[in-house]
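## Example record

The block below lists the input lines for one assembly entry, exactly as stored, with component labels intact.
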Amino acid sequence: MNLEQLKPELEAAIPGCRLEIISNPSPSGQHSLLIGPEHALDLATFLRDTPHLRFDYCSNVTGVDWPASALPGSVKSKEMEDGTENVEQDTNAEPTGYLEAVYHLYSMQLKHGPVILRMRTEDRATRVHLPSLTPIWRSADFQEREIFDLFGIIFDGHPDLRRILMWDEFTDHPMRRDYVEPDDYEYEPTAHDDVLRKTMHHYSGNA
Amino acid sequence: MLGEGILKGLAETARNFFGSYVSKDRLTTIQFPEERAPRIEASRNFPFLVYDGTDPMAGLRCVSCLICEKECPPKCIFIEKSTDKKPDAVGKPQFYPSKFNIDVSVCMSCQICVEVCPFDAIKMDNAFELSATDRFDALLFNKQQLAKPNEYYHEIHPTEAAEVDAALAAARAKVAPKPPPPPPPAPPTTEAAAQ
Amino acid sequence: MTTATLPPSATLISQSADSDTQLLEVSMGPQHPSTHGVFRMDVALDGEHVVKLKPIFGYLHRNHEKIAENETYLGSMPYTDRLDYFCSITNNWAYALAVEKLAGVVVPERAEYLRVITGELTRLQNHASLVGFLMQDMGASGTPLMYAFREREKILDLFEALTGARMMCNYMRFGGCRCDLPEGWLAQAKQVVDAFPRFLDEFERLLSGNEIIMARTQGVGVLSKELAINAGVTGPMLRACGVNYDLRKVDKYGIYDRFNFRVPLGEHGDVYDRYMIRLLEMRESVGILRQAMRDLPEGPFTDPKTKVRNFRPKPGEAYGRIEAPKGELGFYLISDGTPNPYRYRVRPPSLINLTVLEDMCLGQNIADVVIILGSVDIVMGEVDR
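Predicted structure tokens for the full assembly:
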């Protein structure tokens, strides 16, 4: 599916939508389309219902965590500028990190695809809301629940957003890059305790 | 008629039941442990260390390169390199593992350690009747428990062991010191030529 | 065309709550002989009819995706065996395909044929065991299951001779397969494949005409085409609804465009259709196997240029998918140039197929819930990862 041809068509159909092609340097050639969350539902309906596109099958919904340190533009050292203090201008210089939801769309009727959509949240702490595409593609139901459970993106408009793999009282989001495992397990010692102690001793000596 | 499908099904079951008395491939039950199915050659269970010769510690092929420890997916191999060296099969001094432990309660028998070993020192065993009374230290196999002779390797995986032996012999022949060249024929004495 | 959004359970509950009866809430708990693993369903019943059904899983969640972020690409391969533990070869294949797309690795001919042969053998043993388990759930006390397992044992013996392990095969590598066929394997495989159609005939004589099976499965758990497509259902469950979407024909991954095989389609989308589709697919797989074993060329079994250790694909991402026996199994990998993947995602067919479980079970009897679940063909290792 050629995104260069698809992008102007989408921009014409839904005026005001934010679209950006993210190119993929690997040999797979699967480039993706970054969409702004405000028009996501309209874009999705258009992609699903337009007769020559007919993307009726949402195959995969993935969550990705991009902390600030993993982003390519992150500034490693800050330069102190004396004199001017234009704080607003510097917000683009240091990325804050975001969470991302990636949708892989195929067409069962026309047998083409994939079209890859990406939606990014504004930050990783509080502004983690994205519109849910479950009303358009029911296959996103469990997968968006999983992203909510493991990453923490809150999908507005999801019919039943609760944890799916972890138990309901769990409080953290395990797949984030900065997740720290709790060490207050209630467990009986297994072989790994002795083994773990040996490995701690072993690796701390050779690190 | 109603029930015809069920009757045909019963005929199939009867054929299997009575057929199990006459044909081998209908009675597939093997009364283990009195009878055993023939072992398949490639089957693998947990790794073991190969040694050449009779002394397990001197003949151990492992030179403690730590590649298998790094590549093991569940990180169940724990090696400590020795500080001195011992001669290997061609006489070159090599490090050896002073400790080589595999935690078989973690090992998932994936065989990646065998694939990456450059010295054919670790291979897959197929012994599955391992039982221990203790879930903890008894399932941490050390160097002595893991070392088994090359003859054992030939018993359990004959084709593979033959290939490995051929490859090792070829590699060793290249490295082995060449035999001294034969002395040149003695030159004729000068007295006979001068006269 | 509108789609079904919420299942209509909410309206059904309010209807039955108006009368002065109470709903019975049953938790078909994680420990249950017929739930295909540790799987729980909270079912609300009005008498015998299901009014609400919520699946709950996560009991086998091992966070495979996070483990893979700390392992090398090759180190994740044995973990993929344990996703859908019945079909380890196809799991390996999907992962190898995704990495090959990511890194641009080319697979030699002989390796592609070996992949097809082992993949179709996996499909045979998965479908045979599934039909056996479905009959077991219906109460057939294990006879069809044991007949299926007899054939499955022959195939597992083949896998053991080739890869070293019966179930956790760890056979695919990036660029091909781990090792080549041993002596006599092809002859033994030909024997197994030639005996398979006779087994299928016996199986069908035993089961397909059986009035009890027909009464219990026809018209039960009907899934409409539109809902199946919208809910992302793939595999035999989708084809039983009449949608012609088989990745072997659509994506033509590997060398599947060289083989002559048909895609069976169902008409009604009920449990009987799903059962028949699996039997027919087994026959098609036997045909593919015969063609592949006849045409197997000589050559390398893996790409010699791909490194085993320190394999670092360039930064980028790729989504690779195959037609696993249960549906579309996809792997989505994001690489950042290091030996470990940045993001590793498994698209599990069993999980997505479970999305419509509630829709299929509403209005049915509680006894049918077990059969419908059996026909979805789930493996908890894949659902929970």
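The radius of gyration of chain B is 28 Å. The first strand of chain B starts at residue 47 and ends at 51.
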